[in-house]
Design goal:
Length: 109
């Protein structure tokens, strides 16, 4: 039986997620990270980890619970770290959900 601990990290491309991945890899963990499919790819914080034997990336949408359930079933992690968050409005929200400003705050109505 394999005694390797397996961690699943959401938000692995962020500052905290990338540091946590480095830390856990140093402890001998098998680290799996969830990244979102998007036209803008912010992976520079984890680029040095890609290609390591115990480092794996998976595309998933945090808003799609079934894809997350399937991924957890596939990876079977001992630990899950949820560090995912909206990082940039233009990436995280579709344009139809963003309101246009009503006017400049320094102007009187």
């Amino acid at each position: 039986m394999d005694n390797t601990n397996t961690a699943l990290i959401t938000g692995i491309t962020g500052q905290d997620g990338s540091y946590l991945a480095e830390f856990l890899l140093g402890k001998g963990y098998d680290v799996h990270g969830i990244i979102r499919r998007s036209s803008v790819d912010f992976r520079e914080r984890i680029a040095h980890l890609e290609g390591q034997k115990n480092f794996h990336l998976h595309y998933a949408d945090m808003g799609d619970s079934m894809s997350l359930v399937k991924l957890v079933g596939k990876v079977q992690p001992n630990e899950i770290y949820n560090l995912a968050a909206q990082s940039h409005v233009q990436v995280s929200l579709p344009p139809d959900r963003c309101r246009q400003p009503l006017g400049r705050p320094d102007k009187s109505p």
